[in-house]
Amino acid sequence: MNTSATLVKNLADQYGRSRNNLLPILQGVVEQEKYLSESSMIEIARELDIPASEVYGTATFYSFLEHKKMGRYIIRICKTITCSMKGKNQVLLAIQDMLKIDVGETTPDGTFSLLQTNCLGFCHKAPTMLINNDVYTDLTPEKVRGILSQYLTKNKEGGQDGN
Amino acid sequence: MGKNIKITINGEVVEINEGTSILDAAHQVGVIIPTLCYHKDLCVAGNCRVCVVEVAGQKRLSPSCATPCEDGMEIYTNSVKVRNSRKHIIELLLSEHNADCTRCYKNGKCELQKLASDYKVMTDDFIPLVPFKHYTIDMFSPSIIKDDSKCIRCQRCVRTCAELQGVNALTVAYKGDQMKITTFFEKAMNEVVCTNCGQCIIHCPTGALVERNYIEEVWAAITDKTKHVIVQTAPAVRVALGEELGFEVGTRITGKMVAALKRLGFDTVMDTDFTADLTIMEEGTELLSRLKRALVDHDPEVKLPMATSCSPGWIKYIEHMYPDYLGHLSTCKSPQQMFGALAKTYYAQARNLRPENIVSVSIMPCTAKKFEANRPEMHDSGYRDVDYVLTTRELAIMIKQAGIDFMKLNDMKFDRLMGESTGAGVIFGATGGVMEAALRTAYELVTGREVPFEGLNILPVRGMEGVKEASVLIEKPLKEWSFLDGVTLKCVIAHGLVNAKKVMDSVISGEVNYHFIEIMACPGGCLGGGGQPIPTSPEIRAKRAAAIYAEDTGMPLRKSHVNPEVLKIYNDFLIKPLGEKSHHLLHTTYTARKRY
């Protein structure tokens, strides 16, 4: 069994194999592998004995269940109106300039993916972004460069991935 | 049954059963409410909102399909508010719809087009979104074309594929303005678990799902003077074609259909019913030989129960879902493919034609037949056995294009050699028909007597129940079949693949002990096939079934083994059922496919 299959099997053992256990299993896979690959979705369908199309339909419905290959650190910058008014565009440009990727892309070395997200509920501390599960607020171009530098260093040292 | 309650619809007091939807209540009193996502075959979705009505005292309009009546409800189906909203809803649907109607295959048959026409949507107050959406048109399947630019996301296809067929090839993916109907990982239809049954097509209100048509190819063949074009017509076509050409549902138009095919220019018009009879000879013999191997030889290799193999949707389903059980399928090709293999061998020899000059066309109630004809193993004649498969709908289009006044045609008869059939062949078109035909022949072969049902009508196998069981006790068989004395032949019949799953699961669990299984992929059998006239509903299928059985009763011969042309082909060409030639031309193998 490949690692995806083992992971799915363990998650199914943990949460159960009925249809309503699909969501926690999808979340479990995303937590470990950052995204839902075609093969992991097939494994889930097999394990729960549900159609693969249904797994795909559910996975694509939720914004935080990615189904394209993602980097180790997923940056989600808030795209809603308060963050935009407070300078999100300049912050985004700083990220793009530093990582040399556009929104929706992943760095060639697989370290960062850059996405936009809807409101994170931190309007009072806009602009805001998430890196994996950590929130960063009151961003400025300078501040965001510092944050990304820390991640780059951490990544080089092969440390924790920030979850 | 709930209690009776009183409501008013547009001021008229109506007494109805509690729990009835507003839509049904309105229809009962002759008030028509337009619908799109609603379909009698399917569960209620309530997502298109076209059927909204006003309920007094409620600020928001209610979808009438999804709202049950309550006592004292005051309902207005045609108030200013309803009319305005309904028109806006249609306009909004059109703003996302590729309304290039004149170039659409469904032009004139589209439910959205009809609504736009009925409600005179003549402006575009909403920004047309089609240019901004990167719609996909999937034309890779030999059976089905899926054009997302025509899709209104009513999800009838998704519900059809899940509820009627249990296949779930289609799903709803993404959300909001990105929401779309698609397959697993948005793959092409021919790359996912799809049986090509076409039920999605006959449930689609627009041109988003249509059959891949081969009309121009067939016209080209007919026009080509060097080609001899031979056509076969499936049993279920003759009880449904009329619906497309102005006849009442359930009208039998066999003779007119033959006349129309001759006028279209087909060189020879013959009948799939003939090979249906031939299928019974082969499949019946196969069943008896399997029983003999199991009961006399105690062969552990023999696979029982044996399942029918006429329905290509069912074949692809079992190949995907139960690949370990392919040995249970009869090795008989479907009647279409038997006909195709014989057209370019037996028929070619008898008529002194070169098989490479024969173009073999079939008229089918089915879109999966297009896939079946395209299967690589279906070349046993040395050529592609069936060149083009047209659905009942495509034939109707050709008849209209040719300017044939179908109503005025005089009845004609099928050409000889492979045109004679019996009532047993005709009933292949209805669920339970293959079983009934097989029992009529097998029982008589074994006992020398007719099957013990009045007028040869084996009523327990008929009807629209999803799974039907029947058993026949064999008594006093002929000497060579003495091992069957006292054996009760147990049969089961399922139609709609969701019922096929039930049967297969019970067979696998070992809780039942059948000998023979008949499965048809489509609800009602072929008469409810994915290539049949649109619309479809339980009532329409019941009327077509009644027509099939009326056709059977009206035939002078009603048992496959007395068909003179079947006897002739065994005498002149095939020698005997399951013989060497039969094995080569009439039997096939199956392919295990991926479930996911």
Secondary-structure-derived class of chain B: alpha/beta
| The CATH topology of the largest domain in chain A | Glutaredoxin
Mean pLDDT of chain B: 96
Strand order of the largest sheet of chain B: 2-1-5-3-4
**From the helix content, strand content and strand pairing of chain A, which structural class follows?**
alpha+beta
Query: Beta-sheet strand percentage of chain A?
Result: 5-15%
> The biggest beta sheet of chain A, please?
4 strands, mixed
Query: How far is the N terminus from the C terminus of chain A?
Result: 26 Å
Helical content class of chain A: 40-55%
Low-pLDDT stretches of chain B? none
Largest sheet of chain B: 5 strands, mixed
N- to C-terminal distance of chain B: 42 Å
Notable characteristics:
heterodimer, A: 163 residues, alpha+beta, Glutaredoxin, 2 domains, 4-stranded mixed β-sheet, 7 helices, 49% helix, B: 596 residues, alpha/beta, Ubiquitin-like (UB roll), Alpha-Beta Plaits, Rossmann fold, 4 domains, 5-stranded mixed β-sheet, 4-stranded parallel β-sheet, 18 strands, 34% helix
What order do the helices and strands come in, and which of them pair?
The complex is a heterodimer of chains A (163) and B (596).
Chain A: H1 3-15, H2 22-33, H3 38-48, H4 52-61, E1 73-78, H5 81-85, H6 88-99, E2 112-117, E3 129-131, E4 134-136, H7 141-157
Parallel strand pairs in A: 1-2
Antiparallel strand pairs in A: 1-3, 3-4
Chain B: E1 4-9, E2 12-17, H1 22-28, E3 52-55, E4 62-63, E5 74-76, H2 80-95, H3 111-118, E6 137-138, E7 144-147, H4 156-164, E8 171-173, E9 180-182, H5 199-203, E10 209-211, H6 215-223, E11 228-233, H7 241-244, H8 254-264, E12 268-271, H9 272-295, E13 306-307, H10 312-321, H11 335-351, E14 358-364, H12 368-373, E15 388-391, H13 392-401, H14 423-426, H15 433-447, E16 467-473, E17 488-495, H16 497-509, E18 516-520, H17 538-553, H18 564-574, H19 580-586
Helix pairs in contact in B: 9-11, 9-15
